[in-house]
Every structure is written in structure tokens, then in C-alpha cells.
Automatic annotation (TrEMBL), chain B:
InterPro entries: ER_ret_rcpt (IPR000133). The chain crosses the membrane at residues 65-83, 95-113, 119-138, 180-200. The keyword DNA damage does not apply. Belongs to the ERD2 family. GO terms for molecular function: ER retention sequence binding. This is ER lumen protein-retaining receptor. It is found in: Endoplasmic reticulum membrane. Coiled coil: none annotated. Keywords: Endoplasmic reticulum, ER-Golgi transport, Membrane, Protein transport, Receptor, Transmembrane, Transmembrane helix, Transport. PROSITE patterns: ER_LUMEN_RECEPTOR_1, ER_LUMEN_RECEPTOR_2. It comes from Cyanidiococcus yangmingshanensis. Its main location: endoplasmic reticulum. One of its GO terms (biological process) is protein transport. The keyword Repressor does not apply.
Length: 10, 213
């Protein structure tokens, strides 16, 4: 999937 | 990880350290909104549920644990040891509206309708407005002691640095696209606008922060 769902920020 | 984001995270940590210093140094939580602190804990708990399902980096996980732990500790101090000093009469902002606002937007704007995504979206919208009870309290009392004003300034700085980080990532990471994060983050930073102005003015005059009433 897209980077929408990568919550790598705090 | 870029420099803006790292500095943003650090100013977030510094803000919490300042808050704890303030409570220790003055042995009181005068001027601190319990409602804002409770909302922050709710923000961290709902956002960092992914601690159990995704691993991004050791740094990321440790920071999440740190934020949940320190905000719980602040709340604990305010509710037990320094309860007598909590200025309840000035902490009158209706947080039902803020939670309602975040729930509605969380249901309208998630990227996908899964529990984690909806809660994550909720936490973003809630964080964007969670400072309002604190700013409102400041406005009604008109004045705040130095450490409290530094605390709010560091919190605002954290969001401003994150906004710069988004511009940076948008330019250099082609797949990076987080509209909800951006809008909520910019809203949050904007809420500090007024406060920033008076904070800088009070620093220039070398005086305590005093807001016009």
C-alpha cells in the first residue's frame, strides 16, 4: 500500500 | 529522519521536561490545565497503540513509551501530590466539544476504516486542539510564570518544526503523502500564533508573560 499508512512520525 | 523532525521530537521532549521542572520547582501545578494534560494522555494512548503491531525503529518505540509514561506521570502528580494547587476554577474549557470534534473528523477522514487507523486519525485531530484549555486558562488568568510559558512555547515549536519536516519530506520523498497529518498539524501550529507573539514580546522586554485580557 501507499505510505499513507506508514506512521513513522511521532 | 531529517533534522527538522529530530529537532521537533526533541523540543517535544524538552516541553515535557520543562513542565515537570515547573511542577517540581514551584511544588505546584498552578496555571497548568489538567484538561489539556488529560487530552494529551488520550492522544498518546490512542496514537501509539501501534506499538504492539508495528516496529519502525528502537528510537520510535522508545519515544512512544516515553511520551505515554511522562504524560501519565504529569497527570498522576496533578491528581495526587499537587492536587491542592490545581487551579480548577480557571480550567473551565468545555473539552466535550474538542473530543466531539475529533471523533467526527476521525470518522470522516481516516485513510482506511480499521480500528487502528480511525484511532490514529482521532489522535491527530484531538492533538491539534488539545492545547486550547491551556491557552484559555492562560487567557483568563492573564499571566503565567516563566517555566509554564517556556513549556507552551516548546510545544508550539515542536509542531512548527514538524510542519517544516513535512515540506522537506514532500520535496524529497516522492511517495510521502499525509494530508490529514498536514491539515491537523497546521491547525495546531496556528493555534499557537497568538501565544507566540506575546511570548516573543515578553522575552524582548525581559518581563514575565502577560496576556491582554
Amino acid at each position: 500500500d501507499t505510505l499513507h499508512e506508514v506512521h513513522d512520525e511521532l | 529522519m531529517n533534522l527538522f523532525r529530530l529537532c521537533g521530537d526533541l523540543s517535544h521532549v524538552i516541553s515535557i521536561v520543562l513542565l515537570l521542572l515547573k511542577i517540581r520547582a514551584t511544588r505546584s501545578c498552578v496555571g497548568i490545565s489538567l484538561k489539556t494534560q488529560a487530552l494529551y494522555l488520550l492522544v498518546f494512548v490512542t496514537r501509539y497503540l501501534d506499538l504492539f503491531v508495528t516496529f519502525i525503529s528502537l528510537y520510535n518505540s522508545l519515544m512512544k513509551v516515553l511520551f505515554i509514561a511522562t504524560s501519565s506521570y504529569v497527570l498522576y502528580l496533578m491528581l495526587t501530590k499537587y492536587r491542592q494547587t490545581y487551579d480548577k476554577d480557571h480550567d473551565t474549557f468545555r473539552i466535550q466539544f474538542l473530543v466531539g470534534f475529533a471523533i467526527v473528523l476521525a470518522l470522516l477522514t481516516p485513510h482506511r476504516y480499521t480500528m487502528l487507523e480511525v484511532l490514529w486519525t482521532f489522535s491527530l485531530w484531538l492533538e491539534s486542539v488539545a492545547i486550547l484549555p491551556q491557552l484559555f486558562m492562560l487567557q483568563t488568568t492573564g499571566e503565567c510564570e516563566n517555566l509554564t510559558s517556556h513549556y507552551i512555547f516548546a510545544l508550539g515549536l515542536y509542531r512548527a518544526l514538524y510542519a517544516v519536516n513535512w515540506v522537506y519530506r514532500y520535496l524529497f520523498e516522492p511517495d510521502y503523502w499525509q494530508p490529514v497529518t498536514w491539515v491537523a498539524g497546521i491547525l495546531q501550529t496556528a493555534l499557537y500564533g497568538d501565544f507566540f507573539y506575546y511570548y516573543v514580546m515578553s522575552k524582548r522586554r525581559g518581563k514575565k508573560l502577560k496576556l491582554p485580557t
